[in-house]
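FAQ

Q: What does a record look like?
A: Structure on top, sequence underneath. For example:
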């Protein structure tokens, strides 16, 4: 696993992550790995999660980022988990067994490139 210490400019990488998350349109979702890939940081899905956890309310579109299996990445007992679920339902997403069908609703900004997740 690649760590944040390996990043040459962590602040620039953080801004790249937040910019990608802000581009995810309503009605679509992305995995942490997809956000890392789109931000030019392949292999750093966990670091994306850390960035979002640290800047949750300031990160526009944060609620559209999920685990690759369609589950929410936040602890079920947390207020942020309930907020994320509520926002996604408001955008028209439906949950089945606490997961979204991420494949059906995945954001495709670079459809010509294969997704590395």
């Amino acid at each position: 696993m690649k760590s944040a210490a390996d990043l040459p400019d962590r602040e620039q990488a953080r801004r790249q992550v937040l910019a990608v998350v802000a581009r995810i349109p309503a009605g679509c979702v992305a995995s942490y790995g997809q956000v890392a890939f789109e931000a030019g940081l392949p292999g750093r899905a966990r670091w994306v999660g850390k960035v979002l956890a640290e800047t949750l309310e300031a990160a526009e579109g944060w609620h559209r980022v999920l685990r690759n299996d369609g589950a929410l990445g936040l602890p079920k007992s947390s207020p942020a988990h309930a907020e994320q679920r509520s926002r996604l339902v408001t955008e028209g997403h439906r949950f089945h067994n606490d997961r979204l069908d991420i494949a059906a609703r995945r954001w495709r900004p670079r459809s010509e490139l294969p997704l590395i997740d």
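Q: Is there anything notable about this one?
A: Helices lie at 10-23, 32-38, 45-54, 79-90, 102-105.
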